[in-house]
Amino acid sequence: MAKQALPTWLYVVVATIIAVTAFGIAQVADGAGMIFVVLATTSWTAFSVSHQRRWLKTHG
Questions:
Q1: Average pLDDT for the chain
Q2: Where are the transmembrane segments (predicted)?
Q3: 15, 18, 20, 41: which one has the fewest Cβ atoms less than 10 Å from its Cβ?
Q4: Is residue 16 part of a domain?
């Protein structure tokens, strides 16, 4: 198993922030929360994969 560059608790915090923000957005505009979730999770996934690859190159 590969070492993690980012701690597991950070993934939980980011997921919670995304969910709470999406809920808030959905209270204002129906359907907009889901669009936010798609964009935010895609961005977070791209960032975390990129960070993991860079971390493995230097610490791997």
A1: 93
A2: 9-26, 32-50
A3: 20
A4: yes
